[in-house]
Specification:
Length: about 450
């Protein structure tokens, strides 16, 4: 729209004004006729544009739905196939695209009025000109050449107006898009660094002090309720609890992925809200429950943790994460290309690569959110052993569904429905905590029978 308008919008007004002045020098009645016709046309076109605008906004909203549907289907093509939902998804796509088509047709139907209104005005003006001019020529007050000139000027004006309308429609469609782009650009991040933000994380200690949290903000449903926790630097802490008990929510407070609704979270003795965000997140490495790899080689993927790390350094963390073995079995080793979404490595391999990536940051706090769920128990134990021996000073938070993954932790936190149900070592919890005992017995007994 901008490209169109810089040329056309600059030229058209000149053409209209100059043509009108030229007409005035030839024939006063004709220039008055133009003076009536131009505002009439302009007004009508404006009216048409205004009427179509809301329809275009709606069209773009529906485009979102259409794009989302396509994107989802491409990303989750395996799920769609596995559930034999192709027909359903195709029908869904048809439904939305039909709707977009209908909306677009509605908008275009309004815009299509432009041409008939133009032509009608244009030929009416020409007819009137010829009628008046013809009489004047017969009466001897006007020459044939003059009438011809006035008609040519009339066509010039109409042509320019047409250009303006064309650009107008373009701008109108573009405006619907511009609003959306500007909306994103103008969004102010909720989390802003303070002017005197702390840049240095002293150690890996973590303190939760009466923390409440709601995804819905103040007054919403509380996902975390009155959490009090004290973790010393270098400790290994296990977190266990049923699905939806807010384990992930709890650890996301530490790198300040969300701000608490009430209370405070301290890292290294300082409230996380007082840190420079980058400095804090540099020291808190998190392996997310839904982790992702990027397309690129294994080297490139691991170096996300630290772009300047040497090859040896990358290999070291991969050994720590027990990823070294399977990487070396790939024909290209560390240069193996990971495809988009990491679909050419197994779930357990992906998890280990993500752990290696997190380790490369040399964080003071390492959080593993169910990150060894797809790794066999032996490898899981080896990873924990490596952590104990190689990064003893790093605080390690391990969320797990398997008791065996956290049994040997210094502290185990049992979460239940957003509240802490118990804290202690495995031994202590077995004596005092009903939930922990149940989970423990169901898993350990189940394992025993297998053997
Ligand atoms: N982004 C979100 N927006 C709104 N509610 C959320 C969001 N993420 C989680 N919740 C809600 O918060 C609660 C705790 O979720 P959370 O993901 O912390 O559970 P979890 O213990 O990690 O579960 P799982 O073991 O399945 O990973 C759930 O009731 C969930 O519905
Ligand atoms: Mg979770």
């Amino acid at each position: 729209a901008y490209m169109m308008s810089i040329r056309l919008l600059a030229r058209a007004p000149f053409m209209i004004i100059l043509s009108w002045i030229m007409t005035l020098t030839i024939s006063k009645p004709a220039s008055i006729l133009f003076l009536i016709a131009i505002p009439f046309l302009g007004g009508t076109l404006l009216f048409i544009a205004k009427a179509a605008h809301p329809h275009f906004i709606k069209v773009f909203d529906e485009y979102d739905v259409l794009n989302n549907s396509v994107q989802e289907n491409v990303n989750a093509s395996r799920v769609v196939k596995a559930f034999v939902r192709e027909d359903y998804e195709i029908e869904k796509f048809h439904g939305i695209s039909r709707y977009v088509y209908e909306l677009f047709t509605k908008a275009e139907k309004i815009v299509a009025w432009n041409a008939p209104v133009m032509q009608f005005t244009m030929y009416t003006v020409v007819l009137i000109l010829v009628a008046i001019g013809g009489r004047s020529i017969v009466g001897g007050t006007m020459e044939v050449g003059e009438l011809t000139s006035v008609i040519v000027y009339a066509l010039q004006i109409i042509g320019s107006l047409m250009m303006v309308t064309f650009v107008f429609v373009m701008i109108m469609i573009a405006e619907a898009s511009t609003d959306r782009i500007v909306g994103v650009l103008d969004e102010v991040p909720e989390m802003q660094d303070q002017a005197d933000a702390v840049k240095n994380v002293a150690d890996g200690s973590i303190d939760f002090d009466h923390v409440d949290f709601s995804y819905g903000g103040e007054g919403g449903n509380l996902s975390l309720k009155d959490i009090n926790l004290h973790i010393k630097s270098g400790q290994t802490v296990g977190i266990i609890g049923g699905t939806g008990s807010a384990k992930s929510t709890l650890v996301q407070m530490i790198p300040r992925l969300y701000d608490v609704t009430g209370g405070s979270v301290k890292v290294g003795g300082v409230d996380v809200r007082e840190y420079n965000l980058e400095a804090l997140r540099d020291q808190v490495s998190m392996v997310l429950q839904k982790n992702v790899l990027f397309s690129g080689s294994i080297y490139e993927n691991i170096r996300w943790g630290d772009e300047h790390a040497s090859d040896e350094e990358v290999q070291r963390v991969c050994r720590l994460a027990q990823a070294d073995g399977f990487i070396n079995e790939f024909p290209d080793g560390y240069n193996t290309m990971i495809v988009q979404g990491g679909n050419n490595v197994s779930g357990g391999q992906k998890q280990r690569l993500c752990i290696a990536r997190a380790l490369l940051k040399k964080p003071k706090i390492l959080i593993l959110d169910d990150s060894t769920s797809a790794v066999d128990t032996r490898t899981d134990a080896l990873i924990r052993k490596a952590f104990r021996e190689e990064i003893p000073d790093t605080t390690k938070l391990i969320i797990a569904q398997r008791v065996s993954s956290i049994e040997d932790a210094d502290q185990i936190i049992v979460l239940d429905d957003g509240k802490i149900a118990g804290v202690g070592t495995s031994e202590e919890l077995l004596k005092t905590n009903e939930i922990y005992r149940e989970v423990y017995e169901s898993q350990v007994k189940g394992g025993g029978e297998d053997e």
